[in-house]
Amino acid sequence: MRPSEFFAEKIITGVAFLSIAIIILIFLFVFRETLPIFSGKAVKKTEVTSVKQETSGAAATYQNENKQEVYGGSEPEVQAAKQEVYGATSNSEDTLVSGEAGVSSYKEDESGEGNRVTVKGLAGKVWMPVSDNPRYGLLPLIVGTFKITIIAILFAAPLAILAALFSAAFAPRWMREFIKPAIEILAGFPSVVIGFFALIVMATFFQHLFGYETRLNAFVGGVAMALAAIPIIFTVTEDVMTAVPSTYKEASLALGASKWQTAFFVTLPAAAPGIFAAVLLGIGRIFGETMIVLMATGNAALISMNPFDSVRTLSATIGAEMAEVVFGDTHYSVLFLIGTLLFVFTFALNATAEFYVKGRLMTRLQGKT
Amino acid sequence: MKKIQKLTGGVMMGATGLSVVIIIAVIVIMLIVIIIGGKDTLSWKFLTSFPQDGMTKGGIFPALYGTALMVIIMSVAAVPFGAITALYLTEYARESSWIAKTVQFAVRTLSMVPSIIFGLFGLGFFIKFVGGGMDKIFSGGKLIWAQPNILWASLTMALLTLPVVIVSVEESIKAVPRDLRDASLALGATKWQTIRKVVLPGARSGILTGTILAISRGAGEVAPILFTGAAYYLATLPHSLSDQFMSLGYHIYIMSTQSVNVDQTLPIQFATTLVLLLLTFTLNFVAVLIRSRLRRAH
Amino acid sequence: MKEIKIKTRDLSLYYGSKMALNSISMDIPQKQVTALIGPSGCGKSTFLRTLNRMNDLIPGVRITGEVLVDNFNIYDKNVDAVNLRKKVGMVFQKSNPFAKSIFENVAYGPKINGIHDHKKLKEIVERSLHRAAIWEEVKDRLHDSALGLSGGQQQRLCIARTLAVDPEIILMDEPASALDPISTSKIEELIFKLKENYTIIIVTHNMQQAARVSDNTGFFYIGELIEFGKTKKIFTAPDKKQTEDYITGRFG
What we know:
Number of helices of chain C: 10
Strand order of the largest sheet of chain A: 1-2
Radius of gyration of chain A: 25 Å
CATH class of chain C: Alpha Beta
CATH superfamily of the largest domain in chain A: MetI-like
Structural class of chain A: mainly alpha
Number of strands of chain A: 4
CATH superfamily of chain C: P-loop containing nucleotide triphosphate hydrolases
Helix content of chain A: 55-70%
Shape of chain C: globular
Number of domains of chain C: 1
Order of helices and strands of chain C: EEEHEEHEHHHHEHEHEEHH
Oligomer: heterotrimer
Strand content of chain C: 25-35%
CATH topology of chain C: Rossmann fold
Largest interface: A-B, 103 and 96 residues
Number of strands of chain C: 10
Largest sheet of chain A: 2 strands, antiparallel
Distance between the termini of chain A: 52 Å
Order of helices and strands of chain A: HHEEHEEHHHHHHHHH
CATH architecture of chain C: 3-Layer(aba) Sandwich
């Protein structure tokens, strides 16, 4: 009996350790593919990548209103506009993209000279990896990510927090039992569905409402993204507020305060670190979200303050361009670099959120501060 | 003073209540729009036939099939792994040991990695590294495994849904009361016997719930399979693990953003979205049902 | 003269650096009922659990001294705690039947020990339920869930479950404290019958119960064994003043 006991324990422990190994592996491999940038070995290759069994239908030019998206730079560069194809790289004369049955190859004509990407190059303002003179400026992508995040949080945070406040402090029990699952439903929407809704319905709606030019832009993407972030901000905030010991509320009410005064002046401040963490988690979700951005933001690497311009985020860039990139190429490595950045950033974000919940909130609620 | 207070109170309740209303309204609108847009195209024939005429007619059977197959492979990989890890965390690891804390930390980290990163990992590790290695060893360099296919996509998805399974199983194992374990041990059972005969039977519903939630998640996520195996149009269904596959989510994505003729494919887009939504909802609903029955039993 | 079944010699137990049991030495006679009394938190249950090594499950526990069952130290390196527990059974304060049928609950122990022959299992289950004085009440619903029984019935089921493993010693940790008076008296009757075949050690905070049911009594106070002797003597003419104070209700 004892040997099977021993083996069972060892195997179970071993399997659990794999989870640690996976995290480390993920980081290692994603980072590994970015290394060529730093060693200067990345060079534009002209090989065939994968043999895709796709037949046409995809990646053709997408003729439709407002499809002229600008690639890199700011407005004046509209002259160099290429026709943007959603989810794939551009379809300029230089490159052959999938659309041909069988081989999907990425031929870059001539000059694969000095494609070494320097750190300075990464801080450039132009993201145009697919061209004669490829540029890998991350700035437009970062700006795009921030724009979307800010717009999304501006919508999501107040709505979710107020709704959670209502549910935790004002709503009678039967209502709470209804609200929570209802918002859980929103959490169950796959992001591609939200993206679809944004692309087909919301974009048109907002365009009619505000009358701007580009149908798919940061605003539409931001609002759609807010829908994705609301459930998590709501859930965490609501949990935190109900976790505030009832003794706090009772003390306040016993002093003659009304329900809303208690909610606003006692419960909310007590739960504040947790609410902060909730918002951080929401931001983390937004940062890493890909599908909604791919479908609803127009995918143009612009730098602009106008919320009604198209944007492109870091995650969407990976999603859009990875399929068409050559293995080992500079472009390939830069995309992996973006992935590493995303990973590290969301990691830091979640660590901070956890620290806040575990540290500050718990000590506050348990009266240690 | 009282009047102002009452007014403020009213405003507060109004504002917060309004937020709830807005959110729920949006949810309802989304549902209605999708249902209206898709219900006419949705039919048994739609679900069981292949696309025709450049996706403007026909059905989505291959996408359903591909999604189902991918999800099955994913579950086979993720559920045992996740259940065992959960078992470790609850039964074998001492709460305070650094090992337990590290595993907990790893699981939590895994649960908040952006989904696209999993895709990158699938590409860099599964396709290039493992696939490349397999090709070198088994086929002397011929390109078979170092490509996107359903196996790599499923494994990638399995990593993404692993935390879901772990959390669910953990929860149900913890729900088995401590004194039942004591009773078993006091009768002269070994730890492993106790786990097998007392703890695991109690964890069955958690394993089931976790699997269903993982499937729901796996069916809906698209980012991890963008470049690890999904394709838009395949002439045949996937026969082997090294084939690519069609998937509902990917189908919606490509069709809505890259269709040659948007208006013609729009009904199909809506219908496919509706199908995916219904699928996800049903799965989540069933999982919640099982979970609440588990809670009531204790 | 009754043989001594369990001997403890200078048994001390530490939770980390905190001492919970201080040098307990006790001789527990065979096939008699020994009661352990004392105020709550004074170590009675902890002591009980050293006798079947259930304390091993708590991290950070350290034991010094000896516990001899049939003159063999159960804390010896070569002793398998798992096998020990087949010899020394335990009934808990709150009844804890498995979420299985009545039959499966009682058959659990024998199955663990490798008995799978259905006829034999039936025999054992029937015998154990008889010995636990619950057979008549459950014989027609052996395959119903054990959780459907009343509190008192569940506790007797747990006793039957323990008996099915055929132990020599039965430890009972406040077995009736969660039960109503009628169930309590049923359990006490049962204990009286069981001592014909088993050595029983019972922890109780109910002094009257100890007086009713036991042959020997040990009085614990803050981790120490203050006095140990025949029940009659402890309750009528104890040697130590502390014992007398507790018995007469001056503290506790």
